[in-house]
Amino acid sequence: MSRTYCCSCQLPQAACLCAYVRPQPCPMPVIIYQHPLEAKHAKSTVPLLRLSVPDIRVEVAETLTPPPTLADGDWWLLYPDAAALDIDTQQHSLLAVKRSASELAADKLSAAKLSTGMQTETMPLTAMQTNNRQIGGLIVLDGTWRKTRLLLHLNPWLKALPTLSFSQAPASAYAIRKGPGGQALSTLESVCHVLHKLHPEFSPAPLLALLQVRVGQFQAHKGSAPQTGAK
Ligand SMILES: [Zn+2]
Question: Please, one GO biological process term (predicted)?
């Protein structure tokens, strides 16, 4: 007996999630570059993300085409490197220095003058502007840790992008896989957290509810749902 698949969510008819999808607009340009191996992974959360936020662009390839320049702000890469801006603490990961309010005010005035090299001090993130580089669009690499590093290696233009990460996302409901934010979060959860942080009107709730349904399907598929309070 051959399986039939839903033409909308691409899942087997018996597992169709379309009834649970509540689409919403994406508040900023988002591109997910997905490694080809990840695209075949049954537990990828990107299909759910696409159903819920249809504006998100997904490209599957190893050699990636840089996106067009944004009219408003720069493309930022979600990647937890040493220079990444932590959007939760609004500090740069390894270089954070506590500043007084007056120093922060002085920074605002001098921010325009700082334009070279690595960040050497914490900058205020007023209106999500950092070192005069506004977060205009988000690029996310999707794949295992090894595959995302490969994408970086094969596409050096990615390394020229300013990077952002997060440190205080809610605990994952999908802890079976690791995500791109440096934490054990799925890509869907990572993108939700960043979008909500940058644009509070974006609601993660419908996406997290959809993810819960998917997790329930996996658990049911395994025969009996594991009763694990703590994993
Ligand atoms: Zn469906």
Answer: tRNA processing
